[in-house]
Amino acid sequence: MLILVASGSKGGTGKSTVALGLSAILSLRGFSHELFDYSCNLGVCTGVYYYLSDFVDGVNRLSRLVKIKQGLPPQDYGGLAIVDLPPMSLAQPEFVDLLSS
Fold first, then answer.
1. How many CB atoms lie within 10 A of CB 88?
2. How far is 55 from 93, CA to CA, in rounded Å?
3. Where are the beta strands (DSSP E) in 1-101?
4. In angstroms, what CA-CA distances link 83 with 55, 56, 57?
5. CA–CA separation, 85 vs 93, rounded Å?
6. Cα–Cα dist 83/101, whole Å
7. Residue 31 parent element (H or E)
């Protein structure tokens, strides 16, 4: 499994935009992968799900390109995973667990 993580300690820095853009590019080029949005698991949906639920024409087209799931990739996930994390500290257990898998 290969995990690409979009993370940072504050909001509004482009984490979700980078994760969504990378996923769209990989989809257009035929690479098998999945995009995981972890922000809703912490109670506030500020990540990729928020963007894809918007009905702006360009963003709505992206929802047809990407495969998105909520949460983190399962331990036995064998493919390429892009993970969009909410703003969090590097010391948070969820972040450490993700990087150790």
1. 16
2. 34
3. 2-6, 33-37, 68-70, 80-84
4. 23, 23, 24
5. 13
6. 13
7. none
> 14 Cβ partners below 8 Å, 6+ apart?
none
- Of 24, 35, 15, 30, the C-alpha closest to 58 is 24
pLDDT digits (tens, 9 = 90+) for 35-53: 988 877 666 676 777 777 6
Residue 23 · residue 83 · CB < 8 Å: no
Question: For the range 54-58, what are the long-range contacts, defined as Cβ-Cβ under 8 Å and sequence gap of 24 or more?
Answer: none
**How far apart, in whole angstroms, are the C-alpha atoms of residue 38 and residue 24?**
18
Give strand pairing partners of 39.
Answer: none
Kindly tell me the sign of the dihedral angle through the C-alpha atoms of 37, 39, 88, 16.
Answer: positive
**66-95 pLDDT per residue, tens:** 778 888 888 788 889 998 888 776 556 666
